[in-house]
């Protein structure tokens, strides 16, 4: 089997040629990618449903807009929490301080000092255990986004799509997770690239009108 170079933590940005309506102008954060397949969430698909309507305890920690995002077409009845924990909080929230919180024993503490209930994916970005008491993380989370469903690819499927030119692969930034203006995220991510990709940001929504 060909070894797969992990793209975990990077962004998949839909190219204008991608015809799947589920991913039109999508920006996908890859949460897992290896030879067994890939899993990610679409960062720029807000729904009308407020976080407080489905996960009220987490509503106060959710960034603006405080709605649930559609992470992809798979398992829309499931929820994923993705949050950014600033570096200073990760350094100071070690097992000893986390253990002082009520209920902290319900969750493992990271030997690296990561907050209880938060599992690092890449850099400052990680997955939140939505079964954990929100108060455990209230003072360390920089931002939180709740996703309904996710985007998934089987073994070799994403690699095939990449070879077909369906996606640009670029580095993520912590601010991408909690962008307050998700409708502009596709253009914003492309515009910051120091390559010809910056020009793609000017691609019209409807090429026939160009």
Automatic annotation (TrEMBL):
Xref: SUPFAM superfamilies: VC0467-like (SSF143456)
GO cellular component terms given for this protein: cytosol
Pfam families on file: DUF179
PANTHER family linked to this entry: UNCHARACTERIZED PROTEIN YQGE, UPF0301 PROTEIN YQGE
Family per record: Belongs to the UPF0301 (AlgH) family.
Protein name: UPF0301 protein EKH77_11900
């Amino acid at each position: 089997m060909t070894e797969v170079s992990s793209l975990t933590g990077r962004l998949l940005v839909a190219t204008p040629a991608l015809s799947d309506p589920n991913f039109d102008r999508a920006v996908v954060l890859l949460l897992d990618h290896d030879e067994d397949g890939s899993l990610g969430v679409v960062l720029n698909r807000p729904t009308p449903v407020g976080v407080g309507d489905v996960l009220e305890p987490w509503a106060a920690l959710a960034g603006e807009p405080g709605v649930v995002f559609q992470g992809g077409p798979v398992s829309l009845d499931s929820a994923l929490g993705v949050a950014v924990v600033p570096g200073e909080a990760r350094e100071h929230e070690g097992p000893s301080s986390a253990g002082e919180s009520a209920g902290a024993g319900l969750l493992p503490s990271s030997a690296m000092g990561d907050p209880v209930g938060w599992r690092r994916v890449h850099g400052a970005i990680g997955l939140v255990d939505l079964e954990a008491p929100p108060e455990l993380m209230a003072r360390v989370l920089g931002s939180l986004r709740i996703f309904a469903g996710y985007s998934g690819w089987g073994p070799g499927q994403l690699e095939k799509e990449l070879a077909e030119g369906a996606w640009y692969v670029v580095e993520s930034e912590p601010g991408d997770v909690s962008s307050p203006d998700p409708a502009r995220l596709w253009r914003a991510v492309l515009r910051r690239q120091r390559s010809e990709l910056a020009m793609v940001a000017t691609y019209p929504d409807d090429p026939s009108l160009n």
